Amino acid sequence: MILPIVAYGDPVLRKVGDNIDKDYPKLEELVANMWETMYNSNGVGLAAPQIGLPIRLFLVDTTPFADDEDLTEEEQNALKGFRKVFINAQIEEETGTEWAFNEGCLSIPDVREDVSRKDTITISYMDENFKAYKETYDGLLARVIQHEYDHIEGILFIDKLSTLKKRLLKGRLANISKGKIKVEYRMRFPNMKKAR
Ligand SMILES: [Zn+2]
Predict the structure, then answer these.
(1) If 0-12 CB within 10 Å is exposed, 13-18 middle and 19+ buried, where does residue 11 land?
(2) 71: pLDDT confidence band, cut at 50, 70 and 90?
(3) Is 98 a catalytic residue?
(4) What is the Cα–Cα distance from 66 to 70, expressed in whole angstroms?
(5) Which of 46, 69, 145, 157 has its CA 20 to 30 A from that of 106?
(6) For residue 29, how far is its CA from the centre of ligand 1 (angstroms)?
(7) Residue 140 annotated in ligand binding
(8) Is 151 part of any known ligand binding site?
């Protein structure tokens, strides 16, 4: 089932997510619905707060990035078929040089900005079967995970922009929260006026 994606301005996007355990109600169904919702909106990642749940769960499928011809074959292969569920994730370490990448977010349609982040992360997490992992990623893989991880910490990519950029975006962000935007997928807008 495709779930509505929560738009910028909803307080759920600002909550630090809670850990969950195996007994979380209908977890399998939730994960399936989140995959369906993400693919329907052509995203490469989706975090639970974006569908209204303040829990530490996000998913990533970087396959669409593998077509980028600027990447080496090795990088393309790493991105292709990288499809993972991250539960109760904790970034243990971020290292390497900061680099800029043009990011967007399903909760903030039509806004794309260059964001600087460190190149390499080490993250511990559990998969959908609650098997534990500790892994290191770099490049675009790390980038997508960092963006989604921020969501479960209540952080959005626009928080990382300069004061000037933020000021320039203010009007557009207000419009997004009111639903004054054309978007191809289902969304839920916090400040939309109800029709009488
Ligand atoms: Zn996002």
Answers:
(1) exposed
(2) confident
(3) no
(4) 10
(5) 69
(6) 21
(7) no
(8) yes
pLDDT in tens, 98-137: 999 999 999 999 999 999 999 999 999 999 999 999 999 9
Reported as a pLDDT band with limits 50, 70 and 90, residue 195 is low
Q: Exactly one of 73, 148, 153, 184 is catalytic; name it.
A: 148
pLDDT number for residue 193: 82
Structure tokens belonging to residue 139: 């490049």
The label of the residue with tokens 């460190």 reads 118
Q: Cα of 91 to ligand 1 centre, how many Å?
A: 17
**DSSP secondary structure letters along 70-107:** TS-HHHHHHHTT-EEEEEEEEEEEEEEEEEEEEEEETT
Residue 65 burial by CB count (10 A; 0-12/13-18/19+): exposed, middle or buried? buried
H-state helical runs in 85-162: 139-152
